[in-house]
Amino acid sequence: MRTRTLALAAAASAALLASGALPATASGTSPSGTTSAPREGTVSAAALLAKVTSCSQISNGKYRTDEETSATVPVCGKNGAVFWKADLDIDCDGQRTANCSESTDPWFQADTAFHQSDGKPLRADTLPYVVVPSASSTWNYANAGIKGGGVVAVIYNNKVEYAVVGDTGPTKIIGEASYATAQALGIDPDPETGGADSGVTYILFTNSKVSPIESHSAAVTLGDRLAQEFVNNN
User: pLDDT tens, 86-108?
Assistant: First the structure.
């Protein structure tokens, strides 16, 4: 569980697209031979983004994307989901691995707010998960129907990646996801210098829960169904 704040704006400005790290379910090539935009499931990024062009704010205030930025990001409500548009800072907390440890992440913590079915912390470099702000007077995720293991559609650069709610972060900052989420979206996953400055949309489906939380395939299956319902009902 993160308690630190993030100050990676300068470093994130140098974020590079990791084009060789696409989801296993990425789509293939088009008839012209060019690679089509990778996504998980059957619902396109465009279809999802078309439903989040306007915001009905449900948070009592707005969030910062980093400690040094002003508060500009509201949490918005839709039928069956909440969403926000922000940056993507890298969460490498949880199980120690070659990619995520004290040696790779200056702010590493060996725990996550939510745990695997065996009781161990989540593994950030293999499990796509999203960080939600800890409960505060600004917004309480639990009161909005968001729970650990809930499904999230993360959208960036015309790519859709399904993740779970896996960790909590600072009460005033929003826009963070695991190493594996960033990597799957083609974002530099380095916990110290990686991430994306902006352009990331997070759609969290209310009252959803993946079981077990560590099953990414289960997240994709449930996420695809909920994404289709979201498009149909908004």
Answer: 999 999 999 999 999 999 999 99
